[in-house]
Structure formats: C-alpha cells, structure tokens
Amino acid sequence: MTKYRLLGPLEQVVTMAGLPLKGPLNDDQLVVITKGGILLAGEKIHSVGKFSDLIKTAGELNAEVTEPEGPMVCLPGWVDAHTHICFHGSRARDYALRNAGKSYLEIAKQGGGIWDTVTHTRSASQQELTAGIIFRAGELLKKGVTTVEVKSGYGLTPDEELKMLRAVHAADQEVAQDLIATCLAAHILPRDYDGDHGDYLSEISARLLPQLQAEALTNRIDAFVEEEAFSSSVIAPYFHNAKSMGFQLTVHADQFTPGGTAVAVEHGALSADHLEASTDREVSLLSQSDVIAVALPGASIGLGCSFTPARKLLDAGCSLAIASDWNPGSAPMGDLLVQASVLATFEKLTNAEVLAGITIRAAGALGLQDRGELGEGFIGDFNLYATDHYREICYHQGALRPGEVWKRGRRVFSSKEKITTDHGF
C-alpha cells in the first residue's frame, strides 16, 4: 500500500522543470513555487505545487503532513556525476610537492602520482575499500549529494578492478544515496604490465568486461584519453567492443591536451569530462552532438590549472554538467557546491546554469531520466535549505549546508541530528 506524505509549506520550491538540456540559461527560466509543497507517494513525487492546493489532495489521500521548522527552500538533490571515491591511501605529499613547484613527472619519479594510489588500493581489502566509500558517501550526503557516480581505475588488473567495483556494489547496499558505478580500467597503462597499451586493452576487453556483465557490476565504461594514457587510436577498438556489448561510454577528455572530445563524439559517449584544454574545435564538436560536457573545477583548483571553458561551451549551445572529481590526487576537496560556485565566479555562470549543472543536466550525463527535477513521477530526492531564497545557496559558495536531505521520499539526513534518520514513514 502506497503511503503519502505532504511536506510544506516551503518558502520556495525550485523545481528545475522545463529547462532545455543544452545551451545557456537565465534565472528567469527557473520555475519557483512560492509557499509550495511536495506531495510524496512512497519513493516518488506525486505532485508539486502550492501548499494550499496540495493540502486538499493530502486530505483525500490521508497523507501525513510534515511541516518544516522555519523557512525552507527546496531543490532537487545534487547529482555528482564524476568521482573516484573508491581508493585507499593519501596523496598529501603529492599536493605539497606540486605547490612547491615540482612537475607531475618529477612527482611520479619520486613515487607519487596515480601509481601511488594504485599501489595502496591494491594493498587494501575489498572490505576496506567498501568502508572508505561508505565514509566518503556520508560526507557527500551532508552536502546534499543524493546520487554519486563512482569510478574504478586504481586496480588496473582484471581482478583488482573487480575488487573495486564489488566494493562499490557492496557500499551501494549500505549508503543512503544511489551509487552509479563506472569501470575506468583504461586509466593508465600499469607499470607492471608486460605489454603495450593495445595488449592491455585487449586483455581488459576479454577478461574484465564480460565479468562486469555477469555480475551486473556496471553498464558504464570510461577511459582516460591522453597521449600519456590512451591515445585516440588505441582506445578505438576498446570502445567499439564495449559499445557492441551494450556498455554506455564516457571519456576523460582534453584534460591536458585536446583529442578526447573527438573520441567522445565519434563513439557516442554520454559525456566528455574535464575539457580544461578544449579549444574552439572541441567546443564546436560538442555543440553539434548530444555529448554532455562535464566540468570538474575541483581538478582545476587542485592542480592550479585553467577551468573548463564553461561559458564558451554554454554559449555555443552545449549541455554543461558540473561534478566534483573527488579523488586522492588532483581533486581531494570533494565539495561539489563549493567547486560549482567557484566555477560560476570565474566563468560567469548564472544560478540557473549552476543548479542545472548539478541536478538535471548532471543526471543526463549519467543517462538518468528519473531525477534532477521535482515533478510528478520523479524520485523523491531533494534538499531543504534554511533560507528564504534560493539565491543564497550559490551566494554563500557552499558554506550554507542543507538542513535536511531526502532520498527516495525519506529524510536521510538532518543537520540538527547529524545522523541519517527517518528511514520509513
């Protein structure tokens, strides 16, 4: 039997409804319901509207009414569409060396870089990795993130990649959020692999991809397309095979040099992520495709490099999502709203563009059509902020935290209680 609950009255409900997936947005395009409410039907949203109208429907449905304490603004739960929160170890030494002027190559020669994380992650048990994911997901929950993409890529053998993705699957059963797993076995060529890049990808295709499907661990494949990682030519057979098997594709593209965007467009990837080195050519390619550009300002902050050309991408008619890239090397902050707000300052993004970038457009980057918007039939994922206007959220650049976080129609975090709560009606 479906149980109904009415939440309200709320100062504002920012629905994110009716927004185009591509192109620039202005704040006047946001649907903002004043003195609104959300009527929940189990895990999903029954309806959104004026509280005075919904209270009548609630009475007919015998719905429980939950009134917030004080003024609250409601928005969809944040979607973090690119993270690496399955890892073990720290790269604090790398960060210190980088800020002291050492190059990436110099740090790698001193035992740092991605391989340092690979070494630590391989040494960890699946249970240790699961515990790390659960902890980091809990930190994201407090910041309003209700859907989290999680990549592998620090195992770099079929068995170690499986260990990571099994850890993600196990953590998904324990956390409040939905964890969306992605296989990034094509991260770098392992130092201890006896063969070239093509040999490695052939082995991954033959040994790992079928097992991912057999265990239903993920339907998403990612690759780091850079000359020092995997070139556009060497990655093509790998992507062709993965797509023929039914996997969705995403690409680490144009982080240091252009080239990855063309691969993403050619292979029909859902998204091209990073794009800090994208030129006008890459912007044009994306604008003529359905590939969603994903900006990762956390990596720009962590590495001290330029930001994704977000303004240029939007003005060219691209779709722009924003994600945290939380990882132990280049983006250790793991704070989506802080990073999105900083990106907005430097790239002159409207509130609507930022909020769409971490809700409806971010959901699109993951191929998810059931979240990122508040409306009939959408999953009941939303955040309540103790303020009287949604503009305060980006204005405080992440310092204003959610008072409550709701996932699938249930309150799973309250800042007053500091714990997950209310896992049933």
Give a brief rundown of this model.
The chain is an alpha/beta fold.
What report would you give on this structure?
The chain has 425 residues and is an alpha/beta fold. The chain has two domains: 4-77 and 372-414, Urease, subunit C, domain 1 (Roll); 79-365, Metal-dependent hydrolases (TIM Barrel, Alpha-Beta Barrel), CATH 3.20.20. Helices cover 37% and strands 21% of the residues. It contains 16 helices and 16 strands. The protein has helices spanning 51-61, 92-99, 104-109, 114-123, 126-142, 158-172, 197-214, 232-244, 260-266, 280-287, 297-303, 310-315, 336-347, 351-357, 360-365, 391-395; strands spanning 4-14, 32-41, 44-50, 64-66, 73-76, 78-80, 145-151, 178-186, 220-224, 248-253, 271-274, 292-295, 320-322, 382-385, 404-407, 410-414. The strands form two sheets. Strands 1, 2, 3, 4, 5, 14, 15 and 16 form an eight-stranded mixed beta sheet that branches. The chain has an eight-stranded parallel beta sheet with strand order 6-7-8-9-10-11-12-13. Helix 6 links the parallel strand 7 and strand 8. Helix 6 packs parallel to helix 7 and helix 7 (197-214) runs parallel beside helix 8. The longest helix is centred in the middle third of the chain and has 18 residues, at 197-214.
